[in-house]
Design a protein that fits this description.
With 69 residues, the chain is an alpha+beta fold. It has a domain of 36 residues. 22% of the residues lie in helices and 14% in strands. A two-stranded parallel sheet has the order 1-2. The longest helix has 11 residues.
Length: 69
């Protein structure tokens, strides 16, 4: 079954690699919206970016995502 976007996007060459298709760095993070950075990075990956880097605040790395009022 052909995907609907296959008619619009060019085919990717067999000898390509992740650097061929661009790089995206998502710099984000909010204690009130912890899922937003992941959503943005996922969208960049699904849209065809070759390499996606997600930069988050340190509190995300250690699992402390408590809201501070």
């Amino acid at each position: 079954m052909e995907q609907p976007y296959a008619r619009v996007l060019p085919a990717r060459p067999d000898d390509s690699h992740k650097g061929t298709f661009g790089k995206v760095m998502v710099v984000a993070g909010s204690l009130f919206y912890p899922g937003a950075p992941v959503l943005a990075a996922t969208a960049a990956t699904r849209s065809g970016a070759g390499l996606v880097t997600l930069a988050l605040p340190a509190q995300y790395l250690y699992g402390s995502r408590r809201r501070t009022a």
